[in-house]
Every structure is written in structure tokens, then in C-alpha cells.
Design goal:
mainly alpha
Length: about 150
């Protein structure tokens, strides 16, 4: 029992003497090296204590980022719809100017077969005006429905 106590005492004292540390050594040429092993010409370096910063809760940050990205996507979608509305409005104005409430401007190419071309052109323009107005209504509805 006495031997176990002696062994324990010897081990404990060696552990107390061999404390870990960082040592700085400068050789004859001026090169600096750091080590955790003590040598005769090395000096122990006192390092500042380590600051531990607790982790942040990223769920709130992730949620905010997701909402921001969704807002950017919604804005881009709204801008695209507004651009489509502007293009469709311009196209509708061109059609209405050409259609001119069923009183077509006669083009030079149509003078020979005026009746036939007037009816065909009038029907085509009338259907395109209606389709364009429906497109505009659908686009405006999409813009109002987008978040």
C-alpha cells in the first residue's frame, strides 16, 4: 500500500512540474521559433486568455434572409408584369389606331380588292384588339394578386 502511495505522489509531483506552455526561442541567426517543448535558452510566453463567444441563434437571421429574398423575387416578378403591361398597352394602342373603330385606313395595296381586304383586315384587327384587352386584364389581375 505504501508503494502505491509513493508512486502516486511521484506521478502527481511530475505532473505539477511539467506544466504545458508555449516557449519562444531565438537562435544565433535571429530566427524566432515557438514550441511547446522547453529548451534551455527558450523563454516562456504568456499568452492572453481565449475569449469564447457564444453562438448566435441563426434561425432568426435565416428567416429574415428568406423573407428578404422572397421580397426581391416578388419585386422582380411585379416589375416583369408591369413591363408586359406596358408592352401590351403599346400594342393595343397601335391596333386601335389601325382599326380606328371599324373604319379602316385603306392601304395602297388594298385598293384593288378593297371590300375583301377590308372585311378580312377588320375582322383580324377586331379579334386582336379583344385578345389584347383580355391580355391586359389578365396581366393587371396577376399584378394585383402578386404579394
Amino acid at each position: 500500500m505504501k508503494t502505491i502511495s509513493t508512486i502516486f505522489l511521484v506521478l502527481f509531483s511530475t505532473l505539477c512540474v511539467a506544466q504545458p506552455g508555449i516557449y519562444k526561442q531565438v537562435d544565433s541567426q535571429g530566427n524566432v521559433s515557438y514550441s511547446n517543448i522547453h529548451s534551455e535558452d527558450a523563454k516562456k510566453v504568456e499568452l492572453p486568455s481565449i475569449t469564447v463567444v457564444p453562438a448566435i441563434d441563426t434561425s432568426a437571421v435565416n428567416s429574415k434572409m428568406q423573407r428578404r429574398m422572397e421580397s426581391i423575387r416578388n419585386k422582380a416578378e411585379s416589375d416583369a408584369i408591369e413591363k408586359e403591361i406596358a408592352e401590351e398597352t403599346n400594342y393595343l394602342e397601335q391596333l386601335k389606331n389601325e382599326y380606328n373603330d371599324d373604319s379602316l385606313d385603306i392601304l395602297d395595296i388594298e385598293r384593288n380588292q378593297q371590300g375583301y381586304f377590308n372585311n378580312r383586315r377588320s375582322e383580324r384587327l377586331k379579334s386582336e384588339v379583344l385578345r389584347s384587352e383580355e391580355n391586359l386584364d389578365a396581366l393587371r389581375y396577376r399584378l394585383e394578386a402578386s404579394p
